[in-house]
Q: What sequence folds into this?
């Protein structure tokens, strides 16, 4: 395995309230997307295809296929292992059922790698209330993972994961809509990466340190609350602000904020976004431990380090099928391109290739994320 | 025992009554015909679900936090 097991339920996305206007199913649509991530010695690319179609007036089905093709020579890999290539294949099937003002959604997601399998079952109920000004959503998802090792066919560990979500979407004025989401996730099982190592001071080693396998706690519970509001500006443009507070039992505490501006111009729509994320590190994270087996739990994943990340996004969409005219069976069609530039500053995780022990620089990651996709509504 | 059941029943009834009354009495302050701007595609909270799922997945792989954004990503951590 070289892919990490952060599998969460894509299902929840498709189980979101169908419409801010209440009591309707999601639009029939198809999306074909190509994604590419480049940064830190890692390239990941592949397609994602989504098809959604109503059957009658109260049922809507959705299917998604997603592929990651990974080529990695990241800082973690080059310092403790060999570069590798890997694939992760994911597909999902879901259904929405509308009855009156209530939408019930079910979803199944499967993700398969050579050494990691994950399955997620999700269910949610949305109710439109108060003249469809308010949508309340309750969601639950259950996931099971099987963790293996590519170099040890007998290695097999299991995880279970549960998501509990409550969401409230509220029309506040004729120009303003807001959504408040609370989500608790619990994990239990083998939560660390079987390939990753921590380093410890070792005077007997030429470099002054050696490595040993990381060891995580077997449970984790996280709570996150997010508030998002979107405002329609007087000259037909939109402004969105978002804030999220995150905390978990590994003592990571995070603040995430973003600001998005959307500006249509003829058949084009331009979008700019800035996102900021800051977090403390996990209680058992250390860049270097004082000795072997120094603590009960130990980890050196850079994602568990205190860090600050910044994302700058530019996106342009071109509507090639005019929604007022349509074209054949298609009501609308758009071609979209986006670029996200991600910059991460790690406050404790060091680049051990940058110098001798004690003089290593803090690691920084720069990555570009490209997406090109075409969407059809029919 | 019966007292507890009765108490619980009364509380539930009261809650249902509150819900029913509030549903009837709250007058939508934004009428359906005033929601044209909110129905504009530029106001969609998630107009591109495939793209949103993908970028959330990237954030989850690169950061220690997860959830609370109304959408959850898929899964590679991608060293």
A:
């Amino acid at each position: 395995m070289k892919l990490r097991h952060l599998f969460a339920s894509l299902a929840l996305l498709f189980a979101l309230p169908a419409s801010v206007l209440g009591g309707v199913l999601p639009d029939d649509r198809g999306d074909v997307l190509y994604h590419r991530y480049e940064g830190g010695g890692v390239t990941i690319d592949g397609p994602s295809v989504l098809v959604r179609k109503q059957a009658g007036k109260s049922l809507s089905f959705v299917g998604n296929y997603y592929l990651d093709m990974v080529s990695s020579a990241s800082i973690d890999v080059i310092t403790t292992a060999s570069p590798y290539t890997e694939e992760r294949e994911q597909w999902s099937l879901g259904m929405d059922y509308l009855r009156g003002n209530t939408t019930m959604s079910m979803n199944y997601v499967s993700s398969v790698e050579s050494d990691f399998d994950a399955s997620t079952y999700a269910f949610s109920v949305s109710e439109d209330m108060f003249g469809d000004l308010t949508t309340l959503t309750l969601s639950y998802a259950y996931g099971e993972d099987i963790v293996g090792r590519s170099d040890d066919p007998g290695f097999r560990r299991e995880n279970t994961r549960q998501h509990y979500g409550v969401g409230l979407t509220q029309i506040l004025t004729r120009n303003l809509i807001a959504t408040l989401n609370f989500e608790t996730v619990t994990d239990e099982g083998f939560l660390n990466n079987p390939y990753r190592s921590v380093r410890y001071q070792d005077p007997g080693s030429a470099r002054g340190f050696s490595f040993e396998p990381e060891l995580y706690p077997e449970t984790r519970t996280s709570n996150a609350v997010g508030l998002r509001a979107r405002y329609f500006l007087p000259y037909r443009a939109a402004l969105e602000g978002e804030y999220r507070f995150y905390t978990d039992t590994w003592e990571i505490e995070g603040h995430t904020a973003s600001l998005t501006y959307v500006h249509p111009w003829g058949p084009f729509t331009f979008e700019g976004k800035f996102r900021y994320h800051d977090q403390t590190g996990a209680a058992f994270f250390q860049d270097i431990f004082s000795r072997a087996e120094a603590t009960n739990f130990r980890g050196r994943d850079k994602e568990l380090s205190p860090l600050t990340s910044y994302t700058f996004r530019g996106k342009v969409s071109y509507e090639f099928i005019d929604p007022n005219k349509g074209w054949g069976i298609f009501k609308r069609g758009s071609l979209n391109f986006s670029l996200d530039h991600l910059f991460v500053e790690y406050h404790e995780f060091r680049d051990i290739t940058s110098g001798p022990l004690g003089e290593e620089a803090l690691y920084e990651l720069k990555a570009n994320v490209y997406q090109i996709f075409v969407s059809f509504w029919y | 025992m019966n007292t507890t059941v009765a108490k619980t029943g009364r509380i539930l009834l009261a809650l249902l009554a509150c819900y029913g009354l509030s549903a009837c009495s709250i007058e939508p302050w934004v009428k359906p015909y005033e929601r044209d701007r909110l129905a504009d595609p530029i106001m969609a909270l998630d107009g591109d679900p495939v793209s949103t799922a993908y970028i959330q997945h990237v954030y989850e792989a690169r950061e220690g936090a997860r959830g609370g954004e109304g959408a959850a990503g898929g899964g590679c951590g991608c060293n």
